[in-house]
Amino acid sequence: MLRLPRFRYVSPPTVTDALGARFELGDDTMYVAGGTDLYPNMKRRQQTPSSVISLAGISSLREIHSSPELGLRVGAGVTLSQLAADPVVRRHYPAVATAAGLVSTPPLRNMGTIGGNLLLDTRCNYYDQTYEWRKAIDFCMKKDGRICWVAPSSPRCWAVQSSDGAPVAVALGAAVMLASGGGVRRVPAEELYHNDGIRFLNKRPDELLVWYLLPPVGAWRASYVKLRRRGSFDFPVLGVAARVDFLPDGTVRDARIVLGGVAHKPWRVPAAERRLIGSRLDASAIDDAARAAVDGAQPVRDNAFKVPLAQRAVARAIRTAAG
Ligand SMILES: Cc1cc2nc3c(=O)[nH]c(=O)nc-3n(C[C@H](O)[C@H](O)[C@H](O)COP(=O)(O)OP(=O)(O)OC[C@H]3O[C@@H](n4cnc5c(N)ncnc54)[C@H](O)[C@@H]3O)c2cc1C
Ligand code: SF4
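Above: the input record for the complex with flavin-adenine dinucleotide. Below: its predicted structure, written as tokens.
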């Protein structure tokens, strides 16, 4: 059985107290929400904070506020189960509800939060192993080592963004509010992620994600399609989020197609988006966009199977968004 290392645990009642605790406890501290990612990582010694600040006791982080002008403000501590079942989310943001409802299993969705989901660590078969396993082959550059076992001659880490929520956030043009001792800043979801397996977030460790901001309802529709090895639970082998904005006459004014599970960050495919703009989402425009989405794809070893799958999944995501 894998055991957690020893660590100090505090559970403040408010965001202000959490930020104060972070200041006092210093840099060797991490926030934890549902703990469904952080605690397994700590058991495997991938992350080894000496102190952990729980967000579970902060009731304001579990609120959802809706406004026609500003859209939906979702607290970072809202669980995936809550998000998937929320009537406003299901009605106006079905892609968000779908992605949340497809994460893992019911027990993990009952614990896991949208904040933790958006900030999920990047994944890799060599990294997501026990400490002893990683030590036996020698550690890799993401934690404790110097080499990459996926691509040994590579100077960079190839770990992959594997959150179901992240591609949807980017496709929707959502944003997050990050709070720290220095104040609060709004970061568009597209700018939250770096294309780097190790430094994959544009967020300082002391910043606390407080709100997930969804855009106002309008003449747009969105969808999420997930492919995974085991249908009952699994991280996405591939996720596709699509958003299509319409003009009053039904032609496409704007579009966003975002792939998950293929890069270090949610991956927009502008070539595919351009194929949809000005079309009426007829079959040939959708096929054209799906082909463009994988044009020039450069899969790493053993991942070539994803390319034809991605083409079909993109077409399915666009058709689903079209309704
Ligand atoms: C078996 C298994 C299957 C899984 N399958 C999937 C899957 O299919 N799809 C998927 O997307 N995920 C999956 N996950 C990962 C995880 O369960 C979810 O992504 C979940 O939403 C993470 O949320 P959490 O609240 O538990 O995060 P935590 O584990 O609490 O935190 C995750 C990270 O975010 C940070 N963090 C959390 N909240 C905040 C905040 N408000 N501000 C600042 N930092 C914060 C933590 O410090 C940590 O680094 C799976 C996990 C397991 C164990
Ligand atoms: S891809 Fe990253 S996590 Fe995986 S072995 Fe290479 S350095 Fe390690």
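Notes for the reader.
The mean pLDDT is 96.
The first helix runs from residue 15 to 25.
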